[in-house]
């Protein structure tokens, strides 16, 4: 009896997720077929976001793409490739460009950003962070087949090479060569895969 009820509840839940995903997909500039976007926490700037085929996105995503902050204007762009999987409670913030290649696996609680509140010099030290000019060191490029572990942070101006692996809780501040495993804070190479 209970097994039957659980199956019915599971089917209803999947149907609800599918319908809501189709509604969310209309918020983007492009959203390829088969995208499943389950209960995002926040989507800002959908018109600057292009999503490929078969995105699998779990609940809690914060996708924030800003074209202005205070008096500054930006031309942001987020491109997510085909077959990407984004797990629970991830946060992607963009004012410049974030590109995620095909078949990338992003574990839960990952933070990817191309900007910060103010430069890291002392010119703005007395200004509250929320009032500092948003600053980008450059785009974030995540190439095909990358695996980003749980709780990792990918910071501005970074390129993660093809089939690289970023360890759990790593903070990526520099480029990662293809086929390389990195870990730590800041992330450093642990070994190569080939």
What does this structure look like?
By secondary structure, the chain is mainly β. It has a single domain, classed as UDP N-Acetylglucosamine Acyltransferase, domain 1, CATH 2.160.10. Helices cover 12% and strands 34% of the residues. The strands form five sheets. The protein has an eight-stranded mixed β-sheet with strand order 2-5-10-13-18-21-23-24. It has a six-stranded parallel β-sheet with strand order 1-4-9-12-17-20, with no helix packed on it. A hairpin with a 2-residue loop joins strand 7 and strand 8. The longest helix is centred in the first third of the chain and has 24 residues. The protein starts with a helix and ends with a strand. 30% of the residues are buried.
DSSP helical segment count = 1
Q: How confident overall, as mean pLDDT? A: 92
Helices and strands, in order, run as HEEEEEEEEEEEEEEEEEEEEEEEE
Radius of gyration, rounded? 18 Å
The CATH class is identified as Mainly Beta
User: How widely separated are the two ends?
Assistant: 52 Å
Q: For the record, what is the CATH homologous superfamily label?
A: Hexapeptide repeat proteins
Largest sheet: 8 strands, mixed
Beta-strand percent range: 25-35%
CATH architecture group name: 3 Solenoid
Structural class: mainly beta
Query: How many β strands by DSSP?
Result: 24
What's a concise summary of this model?
This protein is 12% helix and 34% strand.
Key descriptive features of the protein:
single chain; mainly beta; UDP N-Acetylglucosamine Acyltransferase, domain 1; six-stranded parallel beta sheet; globular
């Amino acid at each position: 009896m209970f097994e039957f009820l659980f199956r019915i509840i599971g089917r209803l839940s999947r149907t609800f997720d599918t319908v809501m995903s189709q509604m969310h997909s209309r918020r983007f500039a492009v959203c390829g077929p088969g995208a499943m976007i389950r209960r995002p926490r926040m989507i800002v700037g959908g018109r600057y976001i292009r999503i490929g085929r078969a995105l699998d996105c779990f609940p809690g995503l914060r996708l924030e793409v800003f074209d202005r902050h205070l008096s500054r204007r930006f031309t942001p762009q987020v491109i997510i490739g085909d077959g990407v999987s984004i797990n629970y409670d991830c946060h992607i913030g963009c004012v410049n460009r974030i590109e995620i290649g095909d078949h990338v696996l992003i574990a839960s609680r990952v933070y990817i950003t191309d900007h910060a509140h103010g430069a890291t010099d002392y010119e703005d030290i007395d200004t509250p962070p929320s009032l500092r000019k948003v600053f980008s060191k450059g785009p974030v490029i995540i190439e095909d087949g990358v695996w980003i572990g749980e709780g990792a942070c990918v910071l501005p101006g970074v390129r993660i090479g093809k089939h690289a692996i970023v360890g759990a809780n790593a903070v990526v501040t520099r480029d990662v060569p293809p086929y390389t495993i990195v870990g730590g804070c800041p992330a450093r190479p642990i070994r190569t895969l080939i």
